[in-house]
């Protein structure tokens, strides 16, 4: 439900160059998201997940006539939560997701890994764009969130440390969701999961499970230990192999940077290190593939043990 103090301007949107359109388009940049306290959600699937699982974050919904007819549940969900819905034409919708304007130069605060869009339009959002309230970065919430996890039975946490590409962050959140993870933590050196690219890549999973940001890895590791979770890392030099190693019931997979993986200090601090066997000539796996293998091996074991 939208708070009265956050209620958007109700007047019609008729110009793609209006200030309101520019503000939504500016949410591509991290500094604009922080300044406005908002983020952008694009496409029917992500908007549906927002309105179904985290309606408390939703502030405003923009739909084309075609999208409203093709996805009537979006307007119904919005009405249920008393969320303002704007019917706009395709030209306005495209402007809402434009980085800055036609042939806009890359802004200094644009998210890492996001290429400047041709003609200023990075995506086609399929007729649906929402604006949401940006959750605050509160590192102090990490121990609280870990304590809130089930005390009995298996628990899986995913920690993203220095994962810099927003697309990778979103895809990893989606994989964590699909594999049944209970919580995702991003250290302060990772990309923002609320950037448009990360939100798109998560395909709605950002709203399906708790995702916390802003803590330092030096804060996360002791908090995992205090919550009786075993931090596990992958390393090509580890003695234990993933498919034969004993995996604790309460497990936190630590995933590192795309280029160089985890730093030596984090690897040394993880009580469990495993290697993923490589049968061919490839030297390594990318972070998303490695995460998928580890998370689904964890899920497979738990189903066998259930």
Automatic annotation (TrEMBL):
Pfam families in the record: MRM3-like_sub_bind, SpoU_methylase
An example Gene Ontology molecular-function term: RNA binding
GO biological process: methylation; RNA processing
Keyword Cell wall biogenesis/degradation found: no
Span of domain RNA 2-O ribose methyltransferase substrate binding: 40-108
One Gene Ontology term, aspect cellular component: cytoplasm
Disordered: annotated span: 1-36, 99-126
InterPro entries, sorted: Alpha/beta_knot_MTases, MRM3-like_sub_bind, Ribosomal_eL30-like_sf, rRNA_Methyltransferase, SpoU_MeTrfase, SpoU_subst-bd, tRNA_m1G_MTases_N
UniProt cross-references to Gene3D superfamilies, sorted A to Z: 3.30.1330.30, 3.40.1280.10
Biased segments, Low complexity type: 110-126
Claim: Transferase is one of the keywords in the record: yes
Keywords in alphabetical order: Methyltransferase, Transferase
Stated family: Belongs to the class IV-like SAM-binding methyltransferase superfamily. RNA methyltransferase TrmH family.
PANTHER family reported for this sequence: RRNA METHYLTRANSFERASE 3, RRNA METHYLTRANSFERASE 3, MITOCHONDRIAL
UniProt protein name: RNA methyltransferase
Species of provenance: Brachybacterium saurashtrense
Source organism phylogeny: Bacteria, Bacillati, Actinomycetota, Actinomycetes, Micrococcales
């Amino acid at each position: 439900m939208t708070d009265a103090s956050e209620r958007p301007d109700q007047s019609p949107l008729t110009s793609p160059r209006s200030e309101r359109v520019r503000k939504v388009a500016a949410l591509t940049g991290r500094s604009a998201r922080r300044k406005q306290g908002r983020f952008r959600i694009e496409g029917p699937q992500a908007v549906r997940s927002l309105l179904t699982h985290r309606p408390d974050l939703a502030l405003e919904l923009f739909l084309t006539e075609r999208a409203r007819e093709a996805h009537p549940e979006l307007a119904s969900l919005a009405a249920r939560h008393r969320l303002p819905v704007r019917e706009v034409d395709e030209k306005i919708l495209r402007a809402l997701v434009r980085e800055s304007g036609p042939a806009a130069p890359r802004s200094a605060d644009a998210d890492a890994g996001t290429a400047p869009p041709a003609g200023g339009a990075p995506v086609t959002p399929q007729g649906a764009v929402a604006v949401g309230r940006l959750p605050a970065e509160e590192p102090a919430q990490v121990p609280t969130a870990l304590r809130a996890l089930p005390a009995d039975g298996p628990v899986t946490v995913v920690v993203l440390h220095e994962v810099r590409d927003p697309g990778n962050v979103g895809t990893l959140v989606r994989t964590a969701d699909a594999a049944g993870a209970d919580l995702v933590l991003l250290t302060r050196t990772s990309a923002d999961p609320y950037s448009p690219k990360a939100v798109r890549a998560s395909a709605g999973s950002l709203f399906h499970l708790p995702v916390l940001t802003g803590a330092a890895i030096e804060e996360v590791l002791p908090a995992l230990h205090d919550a009786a979770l075993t931090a596990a890392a992958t390393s090509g030099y580890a003695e234990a192999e993933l498919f034969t190693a004993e995996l604790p019931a309460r497990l936190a997979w630590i995933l590192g940077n795309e280029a160089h993986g985890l730093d030596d200090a984090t690897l040394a601090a993880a009580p469990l290190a495993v290697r993923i066997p490589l049968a061919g000539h490839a030297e390594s796996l990318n972070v998303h593939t490695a995460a998928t293998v580890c998370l689904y091996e964890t899920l497979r074991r738990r189903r066998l043990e259930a």
